[in-house]
Amino acid sequence: MERRLLVGAAGLVLAVVLLGLVVSAGWTVRADLYVSHALSLKVGQSSPQLISFMQWASWIGGGTPRWIICILLAALVWRWCGPRCAMALAGAALLSNLASNALKFAFDRARPDIIEHLDHVNSASYPSGHATSAAVVYLLLAWLAPPRWRPLAWTLAVAMIILNGFSRIMLGVHWASDIVGGTMLGAAFALLGVWWASRPAIRKS
To answer: Count of domains in the chain?
Structure first.
């Protein structure tokens, strides 16, 4: 089990790097443009309520709100299965953020210019830090949840990952391939978090 978790995490990290190279070579341009043109919101044409909702979804997935949510969920996980699980969630979230920033610096991909950005951005585009954070935090929460809460936790994880990813594309600040790369990176660190938390048999049933 432990070996499979490590192999899975390594495979996902490798996939993120390979996708970054594919993106840098320009092989995803057509698909990215198609998705962005199909989903991007435009001021004056799109519903103001939809724009506001997507801005809210993006806001809670980044910056200070992201870390507040992470701290609260780490406290919840501590209650579920102890300090090692809480450390796994908080540590995976922090390390994945550092890895995302390092990859952004390495690939230095420009942000989309399809529409005026409807959210503030101050870094490169690939991989999406918001997508990375959503995947690592909510997937780990689902994996570490007690059995009776797992269906709800997995539903929340899927919903937050999808909502977060769509919001970033619809607000014009990320390409679809950025979201794919960020989600895979977050999933890799979620697997590492599960590996760390499960080494001793400390989970409660």
So the answer is: 1
Output the six-digit token pair for 147: 């059995």
**Integer Cα distance of 165 and 132 in angstroms:** 10
- Distance, CA of 41 to CA of 43 (rounded, Å): 7
Q: Is the CB of residue 40 less than 8 Å from the CB of residue 33?
A: no
CA torsion angle for 122, 165, 161, 187 (degrees, to 10)? -70
Residue 155: give its domain's CATH number. 1.20.144
**Predicted TM-score (pTM) above 0.85:** yes
Q: How far apart are CA 85 and CA 79, in angstroms?
A: 9
Tens-digit pLDDT profile for residues 142-189: 999 999 999 999 999 999 999 999 999 999 999 999 999 999 999 999
Decide if 193 contacts 88 (C-beta within 8 A).
yes
Domain that holds residue 142: 2-198
